[in-house]
Write a structure and sequence with these properties.
mainly beta; Thrombin, subunit H; Jelly Rolls; 5 domains; twelve-stranded antiparallel sheet; elongated
């Protein structure tokens, strides 16, 4: 069962004493605060009550005994409480612990009633036998498991119970809890041979562990310990299924056992108080898994035909429980001699099984309309009240034990008992409605992602309480986040009643994007930001954890929609020229695709990006990046595209860390073509974001030199047929070059130079290099370097 923890305490223990939290199971015992924090508790004050005569109490019980199978086990005793009865101890980290031992002489066990609990955040109360601080009940926080400041703690075995109250922020002005009464357990139970007496279970019982056919039903049965009008009682009950089979923890018992909310809130149910193997050792009640606190839902005290109460267990259930089926319809009517079986805790002892037959004769103890059982093997006793009787053929429940004269050693005529008729109880609309399905909240049906509720998270903020989550029905909520918008949501639970987790999903098929599952806390918080450039649906899922079957919770949330940068996407890129430009990606979304050129440290994406557009008017070299004097406040990443990217792997350049000492900044260099749009994408690595400056410089390309005007030996090329020697600014090379002596140095001399060779078309466009010449001859007069520098600018 679940180990209860408080987050602050675990953190303190981990830092101070190296304590490591154990995996949560369900309501098991857990180390006391002093144990977790290694606080030595020397000379703990004792609050000793007057002696109590156990034997006299047992004698009184016998005198008051009736055929009802109700078993008194303890009496309340008042405590004259004052804070001064305890002692304050210093705890690591500035905390303090108030401690006192409460002693009721001769008690076999104690149940401490805590009242007035109103503990500050981080404070906790634990209760345990001082001989073993590793096995404590708690930690109880706030106003306790019920939320009203009161809690009847389950049994602490022995005559002494230690109460600790831990306060992490120092001693409070007034102790925010009290111990004003305790329950003194005087009735022995079978597990301790020294305590066996006439009040323990008789010797004619059958061990349920020896009958494997009933193993599943036995897992539904529990011993219920509760307090009513100052007296502690023990009865039996069982988990019963709903028509919806939704594992609602409904616990059916007898009305004469308990029929008020006050009684139900004192309940502890011990589930595994039974032998593990046939003929095995008698178990210890203290080692049994248990649940604390129930809610009272139904009884029909006015009916003479039934004696049925329905509770719902608040405390978490241990794993591997079973929910019994029941029978009400006439198609399988009870017939005289039908085989029947009961499973119960006689005298509060470990679990037993009894066999018999259904009889149409008048039930004993004037229980008109009840189901009569005639026993052929085994009997029932006090403490068996509320246990179910089952048809052998279907193992369906048909009644709960009310009364009867049977006991070990009874005469044959007395081997009979009366069971409240379940069919009669079920005829009451209240009970039948409850058993249709466990109660839920107004946001159902939302048990799947496909049926996620779309109204709860429609508002920007909110807080909704009294929601219900079941192990058989998760709760899903859909929220639509605008680009850059974030949601932060918290569920608040009472983890005494089961652990829950909260998750965020991006769709109904993928894995969770965020999970909050801190079993040491009553709150689970998730946060997520939509980095997509468009509005996107996300899904919140609240679900039970481990063996927890049901809990109520509240959910609060805040949706923040920031103002996006004006250049948040490629289509709205900011147009720039060479220079420096400040940017802020804090509220940006992720617009661009992944690219293998951008693969750094396993990530090919640039997150939370903004966009710039640069269009050069001439060819040249572009250097753009964030390696500036006002470098970004985050790990920046940069890519360049020719036009907005049409898909993945379309970048022409990408860089992450290449600025020397400023290793988390980026710069890229690329050759640009004149009059082409280049889109520059600036973002962060691994969702990093912040402020920065983008710098861009442009260097024009040097003139290209692809064409000759002479062969390698200096001989002039012939004029192409596509050009004539009369175009404006064609640059008739002969007149110019001969005059300037270029070819006077060539082997052919000036006389070889004619006036028929152009170096440009008539419109001034340079003529390309012919295949008959290469650009490496002496005195070839590479026209492009010269022509572009002098002739073309004159156009």
């Amino acid at each position: 069962m679940r180990r209860v923890r408080i987050a602050a305490l675990i953190a303190a223990a981990a830092c101070i004493s190296g304590f490591a939290a154990s995996p949560a199971r369900a309501q098991d015992l857990t180390p006391a605060v002093s144990n977790l924090l290694s606080v030595r508790l020397n000379d703990v004050p004792k609050v000793v009550l007057s002696p109590f005569d156990n034997q006299q109490a047992l004698t009184d019980d016998e005198f008051d005994r009736t055929d009802r199978k109700l078993l008194p086990v303890g009496r309340e005793r008042l405590v004259s409480f004052d804070e001064s009865l305890g002692r304050w101890y210093d705890a690591p980290g500035g905390g303090v612990i108030w401690v006192a031992d409460f002693v009721s002489p001769n008690a076999l066990a104690l149940r401490i009633q805590l009242t007035g609990m109103n503990l500050p955040t981080g404070a906790a109360v634990t209760v345990y036998n001082p001989s073993d601080s590793s096995q404590a009940h708690g930690q109880f926080e706030g106003q306790g498991p019920i939320g009203n400041g009161e809690h009847y703690v389950p049994r602490v075995f022995g005559d002494t119970a230690r109460v600790e109250a831990y306060f992490p922020a120092g001693r409070p002005a007034v102790l925010p809890m009290r111990v004003e009464r305790l329950l003194h357990i005087y009735r022995p139970w079978q597990e301790d041979p020294a305590l066996v007496s006439a009040q323990a279970a008789g010797t004619c019982h059958n061990d349920v562990s020896c009958y494997s056919a009933w193993e599943a039903v036995a897992r539904a049965v529990g011993l219920i310990d509760y307090v009513s009008s100052g007296v502690g009682y023990t009865c039996t009950g069982q988990l019963v299924r709903t028509v919806a089979n939704d594992q609602t923890p409904y616990f059916l018992t007898a009305t004469h056992c308990l029929d008020t909310q006050a009684e139900a809130q004192t309940a502890t149910i011990y589930w595994t108080y039974q032998k593990t193997t046939c003929g095995g050792a008698v178990p210890a009640l203290g080692s049994s898994s248990f649940s604390s606190v129930c809610d009272y839902l139904f009884s029909n005290a006015t009916s003479t035909a039934n004696d049925v109460s329905l509770l719902m267990v608040r405390g978490t259930l241990p794993a591997n429980r079973f929910w019994v089926s029941w029978r009400t319809n006439a198609s399988a009517a009870l017939t005289n001699g039908l085989g029947i079986t009961g499973i119960h805790h006689p005298s509060g002892d470990y679990k037993r099984i009894t066999f018999g037959t259904y009889s149409t004769s008048t039930p004993p103890c004037n229980a008109t309309g009840h189901v009569r059982a005639n026993w052929t093997s085994g009997v029932t006793e006090g403490g068996s009240s509320g246990s179910g009787i089952y048809r052998n053929d279907t193992q369906e429940l048909i009644g709960v034990l009310t009364c009867g004269p049977s006991f070990c050693g009874a005469s044959t005529s007395s081997l009979t008992d009366s069971y409240g008729n379940f069919a009669s109880a079920y005829a009451n609309a209240t009970l039948s409605n409850l058993l249709a399905a466990g109660s839920d909240d107004a946001y159902e049906p939302n048990n799947t992602c496909a049926t996620a509720n779309i109204t709860l998270l429609a508002a920007a903020t909110g807080n909704v309480a009294n929601l219900v989550c079941k192990s058989t029905g998760e709760d899903w909520y859909r929220v639509t986040l605008q680009p850059g918008a974030s949601i932060s949501s918290t569920i608040t639970i009472n983890r005494n009643y089961g652990n829950m987790q909260l998750q965020v999903f991006g769709d109904c098929a993928g894995a969770a994007l965020v999970t909050a599952n801190n079993t040491a806390s009553n709150t689970q918080t998730v946060s997520y930001t939509n980095l997509n450039p468009v509005a996107t649906n996300y899904y919140l899922k609240a679900s039970m954890v481990g063996s927890s079957t049901r809990n109520t919770y509240s959910i609060s949330w805040t949706i923040t929609t920031p103002v996006l940068p004006s250049n948040d996407n490629c289509a709205s890129a900011t147009t720039i020229t060479p220079g420096s430009y400040a940017f802020n990606t804090t509220n940006a979304t992720t617009d661009g695709p992944t690219d293998t050129l951008c693969n750094y440290a396993g990530s090919s994406q640039i997150f939370k990006d903004v966009w710039f557009k640069y269009t050069p008017t001439q060819a040249g070299s572009v250097v753009v990046g964030t390696c500036t004097s006002t470098a970004p406040s985050f790990d920046s990443k940069l890519a360049v595209y020719q036009g907005c990217p049409s898909g993945v792997n379309t970048a022409i350049a990408c860089q992450d860390d290449n600025c020397g000492a400023s290793a988390t900044f980026a710069t890229v260099t690329f050759n640009a073509v004149a009059n082409t749009d280049y889109l520059i994408r600036v973002g962060g690595f691994n969702s990093a974001a912040g402020l920065g400056t983008l710098a861009l410089t442009f260097t024009p390309a040097p003139p290209a030199c692809p064409a000759d005007i002479a062969f390698d030996d200096g001989t002039p090329l012939s004029q192409p047929s596509v050009a004539s020697n009369g175009g404006v600014n064609e640059g008739d090379y002969n007149c110019f070059f001969a005059a300037n002596g270029f070819f006077n140095q060539a082997a052919a001399g000036a006389a070889a130079i004619g006036d028929f060779c152009d170096i440009a078309y008539d419109d001034g466009t340079p003529i390309g290099q012919p295949s008959v010449a290469t650009n490496n001859g002496v005195n070839e007069g590479d026209y492009n370097c010269f022509f572009n520098s002098f002739f073309v600018p004159c156009l």
